[in-house]
Design brief:
The protein has eleven helices and 15 strands. With about 375 residues, it is an alpha/beta fold. The protein has helices at about 25-35, 50-60, 70-75, 90-100, 115-125, 140-150, 180-185, 185-190, 190-200, 320-330, 340-360, and strands spanning about 15-20, 40-45, 65, 80, 100-105, 130, 155-165, 210-215, 245-250, 255-260, 270-280, 280-290, 295-300, 305-310, 365. α1 (about 25-35) crosses α10, α4 (about 90-100) packs parallel to α5 (about 115-125) and α5 packs antiparallel against α11.
Length: about 375
């Protein structure tokens, strides 16, 4: 392995940041960098010239680029955020890492675990940070449940039901989102990776030993459940699922049930949350219409007397908190090797196993590194 420099940004010089992607997600990164002390947002890249010009004026960005390659080739960026369609995550992240930048990529890490592995390998080779944006774990209500696990209020968590459900929320029919090659999948890889992340995070990162999944595509292929608005990328037929349900077996006997949908005949508005059962208590979080803080109740008691506590959790800071933590790690060279994208890779491998299970119609066993055991579907 090549030994890369672990020198921090020189004292007195701001961290130079660049963002690839000028849509909603990219703009969240831009706002966070703009507000962060000791950081200078110096470059952005995106196809829409008018949007680039508007953002450059808004944030005082000196240089804008139509092509990400040109932005990275300048060679002076300390950090690069990747906020583009999933099929571009790997090439952009790897290019930035090779150029010496630390990388913060939107979720999922990549279309597949194998592709994600190339990104992790590049981060290790370059001696740079690779992190994936899991902003939902930074919500105040999610953090409150995690704290209840950490302080023993809930005891040992042994089962969770978690979901993110939409009635008519296919991002854009015919866009890269609904193209299997470009996206890697439907709501399971798009929304489900968030659900998977916050659930495993809350439960203390138990190892997943087996996955059983079923996927459905009933509405999307008929042109139902989403807009036909355009998004950057290819024009495509509907090639992915619109509903997925997954059972995860955990080391030690625990279990998780996940359900994610882009389009289902259900109540509106959109809803996500988690119900957690532990040996000494439980928790239930229900977030409706993307409220900044959901309805959260902790359930405790001695088995005879119930003690239910409604928690008024503060709103989280989303991307702002994610970028802030990323910059803390960038400023601490001794921690760089701990942030090589492994968390995002492990999530991707579990999603891979879920799709393999759905295709094969059977449970898929996973090894220590979440590799699929036996013949892959």
């Amino acid at each position: 392995m090549t030994t890369a420099s672990t020198a921090p940004v020189p004292e007195g010089r701001p961290i130079r940041a660049g963002v690839v992607g000028i849509g909603w997600a990219g703009q969240q990164h831009m706002a966070a960098y703009h507000e962060a002390p000791g950081v200078e947002l110096v470059a952005i890249a995106g196809k829409e010239e008018d949007v680039r010009a508007e953002l450059a004026e808004q944030y005082g960005i000196a240089d804008t680029y139509a092509d990400w390659e040109a932005m990275i080739a300048r060679g002076d960026l300390d950090v690069v955020s990747v906020a583009v369609p999933t099929f571009l995550h790997a090439p952009i992240a790897i290019g930035a890492l090779k150029a010496g930048a630390h990388v913060l990529s939107e979720k999922p890490i990549a279309r597949t675990g194998a592709e994600g592995q190339t990104m992790v390998d590049a981060a290790r080779e370059a001696g740079r940070i690779l992190e994936v944006v899991f902003n939902h774990r930074r919500r105040g209500d999610i953090e409150a449940i995690r704290s209840a696990v950490e302080d023993g209020t809930i005891g040992r968590p042994y089962h969770a039901r978690a979901m993110w459900l939409r009635r008519a929320g296919i991002p854009a029919l015919g866009s890269w989102f609904t193209n299997a090659q470009a996206s890697g999948g439907g709501p399971l890889v798009d929304l489900g990776v968030h659900v998977l992340d916050w659930t495993l995070h809350i439960m203390g990162e138990p190892r997943v030993t087996a996955v059983s999944a079923v996927t459905h595509a009933e509405l999307g292929p008929r042109g139902l459940g989403g807009s036909t608005g355009t998004k950057s990328g290819t024009s495509s037929a509907y090639e992915v699922e619109d509903l997925a349900t997954v059972l995860l077996r955990l080391e030690g006997g625990g279990s998780i049930v996940l359900e994610t949908s882009w389009a289902t005949h259900r109540s509106t508005p959109d809803q996500f949350g988690i119900t957690l059962y532990g040996t000494d208590g439980g928790a239930d979080l229900n977030v409706v219409d993307y409220a900044p803080s959901g309805e959260l109740t902790l359930y405790t008691g001695d088995g005879e007397t119930a003690q239910d506590t409604v928690i008024e959790a503060p709103a989280g800071r989303g991307h702002g908190a994610v970028v802030e933590r990323f910059l803390e790690h960038v400023r601490d060279p001794q921690s760089w090797s701990e942030h090589d994208g492994t968390v995002g890779l492990r999530r991707a491998r579990i999603v891979d196993a879920a799709y393999a299970s759905a295709a094969a119609g059977r449970e898929i066993a996973l090894g220590e590194d979440l590799e699929i055991i036996g013949e892959e579907a």
